[in-house]
Amino acid sequence: MTRSSNKFIADEDIIAVTDWSFGAVDQASIRFAAKVKAQAGAETELREAAEKAEVEAIRQSGFTKGFEDGFAQGHAQATIEAQRQMADYIRHEGQHAADHFMQLFTSAQQQISESEQTIAKGVLELACEVARQVIRRELSVNPNAVLPVIRDSLAVLLSDGKAAVIRMSPLDVDILADDIHGEFSNLAITLVADAALTRGGCLVEAAGTVIDGTVERRWQRSVASLGLESNWESERDAS
Question: What gap in Å lies between CA 232 and CA 184, rounded to an integer?
């Protein structure tokens, strides 16, 4: 027979009775509450730390930007100042270098000019020496070379038909006497042999005026027109 259900437990079904305590439940609740509180505190600390980190990041970002801006500005100013100093240096040093170069260039030009003058003088002296030797040879083989000098001198002195005295070397007088008298037969000409005169030269005198047609004098006039001084007779010729 089945026993009907009853909300109460029968006495015969109770074997033993033990007192029930709610302490265990209370301790669990306390631990759970502490755990929740600790978790909430940790979350609060994390949130505050995150907020501080965000604030610091913002502050650092602003500082960094300010630092970068300041650095960029300082770098730009330093670059401008360096460029200005470099420009000043280039301007002053460049002017100094230009002045120094101009001095060197002027000095070089002077040296070149002096060298050119020395070379030109040397070339002229050599040319004069060659010409002197050629003239000496020409006078030795061609006594008629003196005739143009006599003609020019007489044309100047005897325009009014006066008498003239012509001095020449003895050899030239012997060779040219007949030619001179024949060419100037209408003039009163006296030929005088002068051993002091070089062949190819002469002295023409009329009415107290003397034209120096000696070789030495004509040579000096020729080389003087070239800015040189050179004697007809050199030391080698004298020796």
Answer: 30
pTM value surpassing 0.85: no
Range of the domain at 197: 142-238
| Stretch among 65-69, 102-106, 122-126 having the lowest mean pLDDT | 65-69
Tell me if 163 is assigned to some domain.
Answer: yes
Strand ranges (DSSP E) for the chain? 164-168, 189-193, 202-206, 209-212
- Three-state SS at 123: helix
pLDDT tens figures, 17-28:
555 454 555 566
Task: Round to whole Å and give the CA distance between 200 and 213.
Answer: 9
pLDDT at 233 (0 to 100): 75
- What Å distances lie between residue 226 and 12, 136, 230, 232, CA to CA? 170, 20, 11, 15
Given strand 189-193, what is the order of strands in its sheet?
189-193, 164-168, 202-206, 209-212
Question: Is the Cβ–Cβ distance between 187 and 154 less than 8 Å?
Answer: yes
Number of domains in the chain: 1
